[in-house]
Amino acid sequence: MVQTKIKVLFGKHPLESRLRWTGITAKPREEDYYKGILPVMEEILKRERNPNIMRFARTHICAECQGKRLNEKALSVKLWDRDISEFSEMSIKQIHLFFNENEIE
Ligand SMILES: [Zn+2]
């Protein structure tokens, strides 16, 4: 497949004409190659929860870690049969009770 790199301008309209506040330096319009819609959407989501992009976002539990956000190796470390994600879900009070009930030998 032949891929064509398309040079695009990004950034909003020329900022100087839109600025109503003083003391803000306008970032000049940049140009770069178009990276594809998903990287562009990800870039915007890093800055804000843009409602136009959130329409396409779905929440689902990761099949690999079951939403624990740790890899297999990290989750294999256990203390009294509990992994770090289980401790993370506990409140300070629960952890306090847990450690009072389970003494380290
Ligand atoms: Zn995961």
Write the layout of secondary structure elements.
Layout: E1 7-10, H1 15-18, E2 30-33, H2 37-47, H3 51-54, H4 72-75, E3 78-79, E4 82-83, H5 84-89, H6 92-101
Antiparallel strand pairs: 1-2, 3-4
Bound molecules: zinc ion.
Zinc ion is lined by residues 62, 64-65, 69.
Verbal overview:
The structure is a single chain. The protein is of the alpha+beta class and 105 residues long. It has 2 domains: 7-54, no CATH class; 72-101, no CATH class. 37% of the residues lie in helices and 11% in strands. It is built from 6 helices and 4 strands. It has helices at residues 15-18, 37-47, 51-54, 72-75, 84-89, 92-101, and strands at residues 7-10, 30-33, 78-79, 82-83. The strands form 2 sheets. Strands 1-2 form a two-stranded antiparallel sheet. Strands 3-4 form a two-stranded antiparallel sheet. A hairpin with a 2-residue loop joins strand 3 (78-79) and strand 4. The longest helix is centred in the middle third of the chain and has 11 residues, at 37-47. The model has no long low-confidence stretch (mean pLDDT 82). The structure holds zinc ion.
* Rg from alpha-carbon coordinates: 24 Å
* Subunit organisation of the chains: single chain
Mean pLDDT, all residues:
82
The stretches of 5 or more residues where confidence is low (pLDDT under 50) are none
Terminal residue distance: 63 Å
Structural class: alpha+beta
Largest sheet: 2 strands, antiparallel
Shape: elongated
Note the run of SSEs as H and E.
EHEHHHEEHH
The hetero compounds bound to this protein are: zinc ion
Concise summary:
The chain is α+β, with helices and mostly antiparallel strands and 105 residues long.
